[in-house]
Amino acid sequence: MEISFSSVFIALAWLLALAIICEVMNHVVCPKRNVPPGPRPWPIIGNLNLVGSLPHESLHNLSQKYGDLMLLKFGSKPVLIASSPEMAKEILKTHDAIFSSRPALTAGKKNFLRHHLTEFILSIISRMVMSGTYHRDESIENLQDHHKAKGKEDSVPKDMVDVLLQLVDDPNLEVKITTDNLMGLILDLLTGGTDTSATTVEWAFQELVRNPNMIEKANEELDRTIGKGRWVEEEDLSQLPFIEAIIKETFRLHPLTPLIPPHYSIEECNVVGYDIPKGTMVFVNIWSLGRNPNYWDRPEEFIPERFLENDINIKGKNFTMLPFCSGRRRCPGYSFGINLVGTTLANLLHGFNWRLTGDIKPEEISMKEIYGLTTHPEKPISKIMEPRLPLHLY
Ligand code: HEM
Ligand SMILES: *[C@@H]1O[C@H](CO)[C@@H](O)[C@H](O)[C@H]1NC(C)=O
Ligand SMILES: *[C@@H]1O[C@H](CO)[C@@H](O)[C@H](O)[C@H]1NC(C)=O
What is the similarity comment for this entry (predicted)? Predict the structure, then answer.
């Protein structure tokens, strides 16, 4: 069969006419939305070609070009990226109610817990989480009674178990927490908590061994405040401003979740003049916030002293750094996390002299990251530890 030139031409003319009609109808039926700027998406992959192995850094670089509120496509899904303190505040405070949703999780995985593990877990928890007020033989029901009784006195949660027990049977949660899956959840949180804290301490040391004078300064503070006769306790932390400053500076430069876990918009809304459709995935780039040159002097440098001069809130009130995020989805384990990082770091500094092995020079230490569930140093350095305290304490 022969296809003539004119029939191809007519077909093309029809397609063109159709396209114009569609475009016009589109404007009439739904007026054009004002969407945030962003790179042009490819079919199927969207903008995923622009997101490399360090997504927070790629997105940070893209925000320099497209602005601190930009819209990308991950595949066919629209994704909003907030990269400045102002935009973080828009998402996490101004429009908090709309952007606080998360996709439903599978609760099934919480049911892995076998009964004989319970006692073991309770013993760990009672040592680590529950500030010493519970006993090993308490069952979940006892715990709930205990907490209900306590709840009458004051409704401010004191520890993670308080937080969790308040969540049990809370009708507002998307993922219902029941007494059955509570133990599994506590276990998950606990391992999550220790891993997150360990990673932060790892980053702190990665920075500190490059700056031996900071270790000296910390040791001087520890010797003066604690003395060589004992280890550091949680209660001591408020007396150790330089250690506290080291922790804050570590959280600023190396937030555990450089991109917060995604939030979703449950309604269409308008953010600083842009129309954000319902169901848009939102990431706040925490990594970008801590490196914003409008708020941080010499942002790339590790300078704990900046926190001695200026007592900056790291629990979600100051949007220039949000290691625990902010708003209704803020990390519920923040005070546990801060205390765990604090006591671990303080005791590792107090108890040991730290030296680099072999002939690595401090300035050669890499600050490159590996991106994962949490972000770790790409090349952890090996260090030599020597006891600093009387040997009977070890
Ligand atoms: C250094 C320690 C920690 C850091 C930096 C950290 C940071 C974060 C961040 C950034 C989020 C996301 C918040 C959001 O999506 O807006 C989060 C969520 C969460 N964190 Fe942590 N966290 C730490 C330790 C802990 C600990 C110790 C626990 C439990 C004992 C914990 C339990 C949780 C839970 C349950 C969520 C989910 C909250 C929700 O979806 O509403 N975290 N954390
Ligand atoms: C981001 O930009 C900086 C500076 O231009 C560059 O060194 C870095 O490799 C870029 N990172 C990514 C992941 O694109
Ligand atoms: C928030 O942090 C910035 C540093 O990034 C500081 O200059 C500012 O004073 C802080 N704001 C408040 C209210 O503490």
Answer: Belongs to the cytochrome P450 family.
